[in-house]
TrEMBL record, chain A:
Organism expressing this protein natively: Syntrophorhabdus aromaticivorans
Lineage, opening ranks: Bacteria, Pseudomonadati, Thermodesulfobacteriota, Syntrophorhabdia, Syntrophorhabdales
Any one GO MF annotation of this record: metal ion binding
Name of this protein: Fumarate hydratase
Enzyme category, top tier: lyase
Domain of life, source organism: Bacteria
PANTHER family: FUMARATE HYDRATASE-RELATED (PTHR30389), L(+)-TARTRATE DEHYDRATASE SUBUNIT ALPHA-RELATED (PTHR30389:SF17)
UniProtKB/TrEMBL annotation, chain B:
UniProt keyword terms in alphabetical order: Lyase
Stated name of the protein: Fe-S-containing hydro-lyase
An MF annotation (GO) of this entry: hydro-lyase activity
Positions of the Fe-S hydro-lyase tartrate dehydratase beta-type catalytic domain: 14-176
A UniProt-annotated Pfam family: Fumerase_C
Sequence similarity: Belongs to the class-I fumarase family.
InterPro entries: Fe-S_hydro-lyase_TtdB-typ_cat, Fe-S_hydroAse_TtdB_cat_sf
C-alpha cells in the first residue's frame, strides 16, 4: 500500500487554485484565438480580443483572470492502493483552499445561504472523491464563478421527449442565460443516471479539453449539433450579438431508469479555469 | 471601431449622444456597489438617512473586486450580473444616478427609469477583471468597510473600456445585437 501524506494534498491544492486563477490554459487561449476568425460581429471580435489581452495581463502582472475566483470545486481520484496518512482528506483539501485564497489574493465567495455571512476563507471546498484502480492520487480543480453556475439546471425529461427534448432544454438554458453567464460559454451536459448523477456528469463534461469530441459517435454528433445550434442563437460574445456564443459543448452520458430521462446543463464562462496534478 | 473618451460624473449633453453598441473609454470617478451595498442604501433611505455619496450625475459600477495584492491599487475588478440590482436601481436613478456599469440584461422597470430620467447602462467585459484593473488609478473605501468585497469603493479610472448597452433613445444592444446575428 502506497502512503500519501495529507500535507502533499494540501500543498497541491494551494498551488493548483492559485495557478488556475492566474494562468488561463493554452487550450482555452488557442480556442479564443481561433474563435476571432469565426466571429461575424466587429463588436464580438473586439470582446474576444479583450479576453485574450485580459489573460496576458493576468499572467504578466499577476492579477486574477476574474475577480470571481469561484467556489473551490475539487475532484480527487484516489487509487485504491493508496493509503492517505496524517489526517483527513477533506480537512487537507479545505486547508489547501484556505491557503490558496489567502496567499493568492483570491476573492472569498463562500457564504451562509440564510445570513449571507461570508465563511471568510472560501471553504468548504466542493469536493468529489472517486476510488479508482492504481496507487496514484489525481487532483483536478475547477474554480467556478457564480455568474455562470446560476444558469445551470437539472430537468427530469419524459423519455418520449428524446433527443429533441434534450436539444430544446439546452437551448432554452443558453437563451435564458443570454449575456449573464459571460459568453462565449462552455456548456456541459449530463444525460442519464438519476437526478444527482446527471448533475455531476454535466460538471465532469466541463473538464474535457475544448475541441475534444466524445468517443461515442452518437454523443459526439449531439455535441456538434448542439454547438452549431447555440452559435446560431445570435447571443455572441458578452451577449452583444454575434456568431460565437459557445466555445464548445461536451456531453457525458450513462444509462438511466426505464421511466426517466434526466438531463443536466452546467454552464461555464469563457474564463474556464482548470488545473490538474497527479501525486 | 471608433472609440470616444467620456468623463464621470456624466454630463447631460454627453449622455444624450451615447448610442447602444458604441465603445467608450471612461475617465474620472465612479463608485462600486453590489448586492449588500444596495440593500443597505435602501434601508438607509427608508430610515431617512443619507447615502454614502450623492447620486446626482454619478456612475455606479456593479463590482466586488478581488483583494489588492501588495503594490497594486486593486485586484481583478470585472463586473457582476446587474439584474440582481434591478430591484434597487430605479430608486437610485430617480435620485440622480446617471450611469450603471455591469453585465447582463436589465428589467423593464430599470429601462423605463433610464428613459424617464435620462440615464445609461454600460457593459464592462465580464471575466476581463485583470484588464479592467489596469484602468483603475486609485481606490478608496468610502463606506460599508464591514462588507469586505461588497464595500462601497470610490475608483478613479482612466480609459476604462466599456460598451453602451442601453442608451437614452430606447436602444438595447442585447436585443439589437442578438436579433442581427440570429439565424
Amino acid at each position: 500500500m502506497r502512503e500519501v501524506h495529507v500535507d502533499r494534498i494540501t500543498g497541491a491544492l494551494e498551488e493548483l487554485f492559485i495557478d488556475a486563477n492566474y494562468n488561463l490554459s493554452q487550450n482555452v487561449l488557442d480556442t479564443l484565438e481561433r474563435s476571432i476568425g469565426k466571429e461575424g460581429s466587429p463588436v464580438g471580435k473586439e470582446v474576444i480580443r479583450e479576453l485574450i489581452r485580459n489573460a496576458s495581463v493576468a499572467k504578466d502582472e499577476h492579477v486574477p483572470i476574474c475577480q470571481d475566483t469561484g467556489l473551490a470545486v475539487t475532484f480527487i481520484e484516489v487509487g485504491q492502493d493508496v493509503h492517505i496518512v496524517g489526517g483527513l482528506l477533506s480537512d487537507a483539501v479545505d486547508e489547501g483552499v484556505r491557503r490558496a485564497y489567502e496567499k493568492g489574493y483570491l476573492r472569498k465567495s463562500a457564504c451562509h445561504p440564510f445570513s449571507r455571512k461570508n465563511t471568510g476563507d472560501n471553504t468548504p471546498a466542493i469536493l468529489h472523491v472517486k476510488i479508482v484502480p492504481g496507487d496514484k492520487v489525481k487532483i483536478t480543480v475547477l474554480p467556478k464563478g457564480g455568474g455562470s453556475e446560476n444558469y445551470g439546471e437539472v430537468r427530469m425529461l419524459v423519455p418520449s421527449q428524446g433527443k429533441e427534448g434534450m436539444r430544446a432544454f439546452v437551448l432554452e438554458m443558453v437563451t435564458k442565460g443570454g449575456p449573464n453567464p459571460c459568453p462565449p460559454i462552455i456548456v456541459g451536459v449530463g444525460i442519464g443516471g438519476n437526478l444527482e448523477t446527471s448533475a455531476l456528469l454535466s460538471k465532469e463534461a466541463l473538464m474535457e479539453p475544448l475541441g475534444k469530441r466524445s468517443a461515442d459517435q452518437a454523443v459526439a454528433a449531439l455535441e456538434v449539433e448542439l454547438l452549431d445550434a447555440i452559435n446560431e442563437s445570435g447571443i455572441g460574445p458578452q451577449g452583444y450579438g454575434g456568431t460565437v456564443t459557445a466555445l464548445d459543448v461536451h456531453v457525458k452520458m450513462m444509462p438511466c431508469h426505464i421511466a426517466s430521462l434526466p438531463v443536466a446543463v452546467n454552464i461555464q464562462c469563457h474564463a474556464h479555469r482548470i488545473r490538474e496534478m497527479t501525486i | 471601431m471608433e472609440i470616444r473618451r467620456i468623463k464621470a460624473p456624466l454630463e447631460a449633453g454627453v449622455i444624450e449622444e451615447l448610442k447602444a453598441g458604441e465603445k467608450v473609454l471612461l475617465n474620472g470617478y465612479i463608485y462600486t456597489a453590489r448586492d449588500a451595498a444596495h440593500k443597505r442604501f435602501m434601508d438607509t433611505l427608508k430610515d431617512g438617512g443619507t447615502l454614502p455619496f450623492d447620486m446626482v450625475n454619478q456612475v455606479i459600477y456593479y463590482c466586488g473586486p478581488s483583494p489588492a495584492p501588495p503594490g497594486r491599487v486593486i485586484g481583478a475588478c470585472g463586473p457582476t450580473t446587474s439584474s440582481r440590482m434591478d430591484a434597487y436601481a430605479p430608486k437610485l436613478i430617480s435620485l440622480g444616478l446617471k450611469g450603471m456599469i455591469g453585465k447582463g440584461k436589465r428589467s423593464q422597470a430599470v429601462k423605463d427609469a433610464m428613459k424617464q430620467y435620462r440615464a445609461v447602462y454600460f457593459g464592462a467585459t465580464g471575466g476581463a477583471g485583470a484588464l479592467l484593473s489596469k484602468s483603475v488609478l486609485s481606490s478608496e473605501i468610502i463606506a460599508y468597510g464591514d462588507m469586505g468585497p461588497e464595500a462601497v469603493v470610490r475608483l478613479e479610472v482612466r480609459d476604462m473600456p466599456l460598451f453602451v448597452i442601453n442608451d437614452t433613445h430606447g436602444n438595447d444592444l442585447y436585443e439589437s445585437g442578438t436579433s442581427q446575428y440570429r439565424r
